[in-house]
Recover the amino acids of this structure.
């Protein structure tokens, strides 16, 4: 068994954001962001959700556009793709989403855990100082309207004030490789999954905000020094596979003419 390889990263927001907690009517706000020891943080479940969605979108789009199908990479089982149908049945022949995120209630457990993202101790002191002297520098009041999820439009008389967090300090988090995954999945596949996670991190540009109104904009920076090389190598392999397939398609169509 190889040593487990975690993916450490920095997450930086360049706009105010809100990861809504269930705390209602706190001070002057109807809704505030989740706090850990009084300091805003990003829960692991939020990060996991965004990365999962990005991997899904990337794989499904490539599958559609290039028709390149090497199963371990971009084939996503129906249950992961649409929420209907079957999940993968076997960890050895599983799609990336089942391998990385696991299947609820199945013996295929997740390959990675997602920690929350927190500001570091030094910055925490800085945060406490600012929060004590001028909390308005951190929490921005914004009036928002509840959106009806079914009708996808604003509900009437449902205005609420959100305490948007404006904190241009880096959050730090970790994506942790699980030992059983490390043991059961072969190295080539592990590398694919790792690159997919890195790629997804770069594709996520928004957490806890509203894309259209410009809140919650963020950037993940993996701290692993090789991440850029890994992603670029992967994209090159991908392109050459695509070119070979396209050439074959052209050859076939020439012959049939
Ligand atoms: Zn699957």
């Amino acid at each position: 068994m190889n040593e487990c390889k975690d993916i450490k990263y920095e997450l930086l927001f360049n706009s105010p954001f809100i990861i809504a907690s269930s705390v209602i009517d706190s001070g002057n706000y109807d809704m505030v962001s989740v706090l850990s020891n009084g300091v805003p943080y990003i829960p692991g479940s939020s990060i996991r959700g965004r990365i999962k969605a990005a991997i899904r979108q990337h794989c499904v789009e490539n599958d559609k556009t290039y028709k390149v199908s090497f199963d371990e990479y971009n084939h996503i089982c129906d249950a992961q793709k649409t929420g209907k149908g079957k999940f993968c049945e076997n960890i050895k022949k599983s799609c990336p989403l089942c391998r990385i995120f696991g299947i609820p209630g199945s013996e295929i457990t997740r390959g990675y855990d997602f920690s929350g993202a927190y500001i570091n101790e030094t910055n925490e002191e800085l945060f406490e100082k600012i929060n004590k002297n001028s909390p308005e520098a951190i929490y921005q009041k914004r009036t928002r309207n509840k959106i009806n999820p079914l009708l996808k439009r604003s509900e009437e008389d449902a205005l609420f004030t959100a305490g948007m967090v404006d904190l241009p300090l880096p959050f730090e988090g970790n994506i942790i490789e699980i030992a059983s995954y490390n043991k059961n999945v072969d190295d080539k596949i592990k590398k694919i999954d790792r690159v997919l996670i890195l790629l997804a991190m770069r594709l996520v540009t928004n957490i806890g905000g509203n894309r259209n109104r410009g809140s919650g904009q963020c950037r993940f920076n993996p701290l692993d020094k090789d991440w850029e090389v890994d992603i670029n190598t992967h994209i090159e392999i991908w392109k050459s596979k695509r070119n070979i397939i396209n050439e074959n398609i052209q050859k076939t169509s020439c012959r049939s003419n």
